[in-house]
Every structure is written in C-alpha cells, then in structure tokens.
Design a protein that fits this description.
The chain is an alpha+beta fold. Helix content is 22%, strand content 30%. The chain has five helices and ten strands; from the N terminus they run H-H-H-H-H-E-E-E-E-E-E-E-E-E-E. The strands form two sheets. A six-stranded antiparallel beta sheet has the order 1-2-3-10-5-8, with no helix packed on it. Strands 4-9-6-7 form a four-stranded antiparallel beta sheet, with no helix packed on it. A hairpin with a 4-residue loop joins strand 1 and strand 2.
Length: 191
C-alpha cells in the first residue's frame, strides 16, 4: 500500500539556523564571514524567504559545529556536555599546490580570536602567510619532523617536540626542508 505524504514542503531551516547562531553569540555578519555565505542570503534563510542549497547547508553546519541533519530539523536537541567531532567533519584547507594541508581544529565561532590547526607539510612544502592584524601571535609546536620558521629576516629550525612563539603581524613562512613529512600544531591568537 502506498503511503500518502501530507507535507511535501522542504524543512524550515530558518528558525533552527537563527537559534543555533544566537546560541553561539554570532551576528549575521560573523556567521557570514565564518561560513562564506553572504549576509543577505543568511537573512533570507532565517526569514524563510530562501532555502539553502546542500553546499550552503554544509558550510553553515560546519561553521556552527553541528551536523547537517541538525539544521534540517526543528527539533531542539538537549545540549551535550561533550561534543565529539569526527575526523571527516573537520574542515581542511588543502594547500596541495604548496605541499601542505591545514586541518581546522578550533570551533568556527572562535575564528578571528583564537584559532588552532594541525599543519601537515610534505617534504619541500611550505605555508607562507602574509602579515595578520597588528598584535597577532602564533605558537607552533612540531609533532613530527623538523621545520624551518622564517619571520621577517630571521630563520630558525624547530625540531620535534619544540615550540616556537612569534609575532604573526609580519610575513612569515613555515617550511619543511626535510625528506619526510612534518606535522605541527599551530595556534593563532588575535589581539
């Protein structure tokens, strides 16, 4: 027997999106910057004037630190004390052209304040960064291998287990000059 669907309308994502955004203390502008979705589109979605594409829903879910299904339901879930983020849910910035990958370990709602990453550098790979805002600092802890850190005119080797702390408000480069892959944790603190 065929079951007749009584409600064939798409889910109303707007109220859920707004609830999740406000619970994290984010403005439309904050979420727009973090998710890479225009402020006007976010406003339309929250007012139920537009339905997001799957790609936009995925970006919003990642930015808010929830699974896509949570955005597509109006059901309010109890707050979890411990939120596990599976490896496949962690956004990665691929820099294959430069021999690196950067996994974004910190929650998106802290972007622009505190950020932490897992940096993987192939042999010969480099992460070159332009100067960040004045007062920004970085902390680089090498987990495997050895990297060369260049800040301004100064260069230093950072070996396995060591941490380098440096001003990131000037151009800086982290390079793997070794013959094996190097991994590091990178923490960015914005002032």
């Amino acid at each position: 027997m065929n079951k007749i669907l009584t409600n064939n309308a798409p889910p109303e994502v707007g109220a859920t999106l707004q609830r999740l955004r406000l619970a994290r203390g984010l403005t439309l502008e904050d979420l727009s910057r973090i998710a890479g979705v225009s402020k006007s589109m976010l406003s339309q979605i929250e007012r139920e004037k537009a339905n997001p594409t799957i790609a936009i829903t995925w970006r919003l879910a990642n930015a808010l630190g929830v699974q896509i299904g949570e955005l597509l339901t109006s059901e309010v879930r109890p707050t979890e004390l411990i939120r596990l983020v599976d490896a496949h849910e962690i956004p990665t910035l691929p820099g294959a052209h430069a021999g690196y990958s950067l996994r974004i370990l910190g929650p998106m709602d802290l972007a622009g304040k505190y950020e932490w990453y897992e940096l993987t550098l192939a042999p010969g790979g480099a992460l070159a960064s332009q100067a960040h805002d004045p007062g920004t600092g970085e902390h680089l802890t090498v987990i495997t291998g050895t990297v060369e850190l260049e800040v301004g005119l100064e260069k230093k080797k950072v070996r396995h287990g060591a941490t380098a702390r440096y001003p990131a408000d000037q151009d800086h480069v982290i390079r793997n000059t070794g013959k094996t892959e190097a991994k590091a944790l990178l923490v960015v603190v914005h002032r």
